[in-house]
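Shipment paperwork, digital attachment
Item: protein structure file
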Amino acid sequence: MDFFERQAQARRRTALFLVLYGAIFVVVALALFLLVNVVVYVCEFAFSLDERVFWNWGVFGWFCLGFAGFIGITVGSRFFQLRGGGPAVAEMLRGERLAETGGDLRERQLHNVVEEMAVAAGIPKPDIYVFERELGINSLVAGFGLDDAILGVTRGALEHLDRDEIQGAVAHEFSHLLNGDMRLNLWMICMLHGIFSVHELGLDAVRSTWGDERDPAGSLGHGYSGFYGGVFVFVMGMALIAIGYPGYVLARIVQCALSRQREHLADAAALQFTRYPHGLAGALKKVGGWSRGGRIDHPLAEEAGHVFFVDGISGTLERIFSTHPPIVSRIRSLDPSFDGGFPVILDERARRRSQVIRVPEIDIPAPSRELLPLLERVQVQAIVAAIGQLEASRLERSRTILERIPASLRQSVRQPEGAAAVVLELMQSDGGPGPSGLAPESDGRNDAVGVPESCRTLDRESRLALVELALPALHHLSPGAYTALRAKVDRRISDGVEGGGSSTPSGAGLYALCIGQTVIHFLDRHFGRTSGPTRQIYSIGSQWDEVSVLLGALARAGEKDTDLAWRAALSALPVNLRNNPLPAPVPPGELRRAMDTLHCLSPGTLRRFMNAAVHCVASDGRVSPGEAELIRAFAAALGCPVPPVVAKVRT
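Attachment content:
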C-alpha cells in the first residue's frame, strides 16, 4: 500500500467513524429519552394525572434536537480547544516544548533522531514536546497535517530508552504521521468527548453529592436544599451513568476497532524504516518491565488513548477495550524468540535529572560539489512509489545529508530569526555562480543573525533538508516578523524570475518559488491566513488550467527538451488530456495561485499529478541531482513528502 492509498484509507476511516458515531448518538438518545419517559410516567402515576404523554415520537424528535445541541456544544468546545493542532494537543496533556538548543544528552539525542528521520522522509521536522510529569514510557504524534505536527515523548521514555529504542519509537510515530492518522485521531478526541460527557456528567453529579472532607457542605443532604435534594441529584447522576455507559462502551469499541490495526501497521513500517527490530522491540520490552508501564497520569488520557505509542491507561475494562494490541504480541511480531520475560527497570530519574551533559557540536565541512554524481539513472515509478515510504536506505542517506550541513547552519535554523534568514538566503542563491544567475544580496542583515557564507554553497539536496529543519522554528515568529518574512519571500521569487531572464521561472527560479510556497503553506494556517481553496479536488481535468501551467513550467525548467518533457507528462495523464498543447509561459503569480489550488488535491488525484510531474522531469530516463531536488521541492510546495531519491549512478 503506497502513500496515496494510505491517505485515502485514512479518509475512509474518518467517514466510517462518523457513521458509527451517528449510530452511537441514536442509541444514547434513545436511552436518555427512555429515562425521561420513565420519570414522566412515575409522575403521572404518583399524581394521578389523566393526560398520558408516555413515548411521544414528536417529543422524541425535539428531544433528539436538544441532545444534538448538547453534544455539539461539548464537541465544539473540545475542537475549539484543539483548533491549534498538534501544539494544542500537547499543551492539553501538559507537554512542554523542547528547546532546539541546549538540554541534556538525551534531549539532544532525541533532536538528532527526529532530524534524521524528518530528512529521510522528506517532511518538515515536527516540534518536539516532553511530558515532564509523565514517568511512564510513551510517545505520540498529533496535528491536523504536516504543517502543525508535533512529536511528544514522556520523561519516562527519555530516561529509560537508549538511542536505538528511541529511534524505534519515533519511527513508529512517523508512520502514523505519514499514514494520515493524525487528523482522524484529533477528530476522535473531539467526538468521543461528546459521548463520554454524558457518562462524565453523571459521575460529576454523584461526586458532588458526596463532597469531600475539605468541603462538607457539598456532601449529601447539605448542598442541594436538604437531604432529599441530595438524594434526587444522586439518583439522577446514577441514572446518567447507567444510560451513558452503553454509549461509553460503544465509543470505546469504535475507538479500539479503528486503532488496533493501525498500530500493527505502524510497527511494520517502523521496522522497514530502521531495519533494526531490536530497537522497537526493546522499547516495548522496557514498557512491559517498567513498573509504570506506559501509563499517562492525566484526566484526558482515556479520550486521547488512541494517539499514544502504547496504552496509557490501566484497568480491567481498559485491557478489554484497549486501543493497542497486547505488548507481548507486538514484541513477538518483531522478535519471534521472545519468551515473555521483561527486563527489570530501576528508577534512576532523580540521579539523571541532576546531571546536565552538554553535547559538543562538531562542524563537518561540506564536500566539494565535484564529488557529487553527475547523472543518476532512475525508474520513474520508483520515485512515485518512494513518496511517504519509510526505508532504512533513506535513513542512512539522511545522515549523510545532515553531515554535509555545517553545524553552524544547523544551529542557526533552531532559532526563529536564524531560520528566517537561512530560508531567504537559500531562496536567493543556488549554490554560488550557476544557472540561477542571481547575485547574492549582502546587506549584512543575514550575517547579523548567524548565517555564514557556507549557506550559499550547499548542494540542493542539503538545501532542501535545511529548509525542512528550519520550518518548525518559524512557527515561533511574531505575527509582525512573519508578515515581513512573507514580503521578503515574495521579493525573492520575483528576483529569481528576473534572474532567469524571462516571465516564467528558470530551473533555479522555480526551485526558489517552490521553497517560498512551501514556507508560506506551512505557516499561513498557523498565523490565521489562508492560501487558496480548502475543498478537495478529485479530478485533474476539472483543474486543467492549473495543472497545465505547473507541468508546463516544470517542462521548461528541467534540463530536457521542453516538447519531449511535455509529451512525457501528458503520457501519464488520462487519455482525454493527452492532446493538449504546451501552454504559454505565465508569470510567477499565476504559478503560485495554481499551487494554492492544487494543494487541495485528493490523495488519488495527487498521485496522478505527481506521476505526470516525474515523467516530465525524467523524460529521457535520467534524472540529474539538480532535477531530483527540483521535483522534491515541487512536491513539497504541494504538501507531498518526497524523500531523498536513492538511485544508481550512471556509468
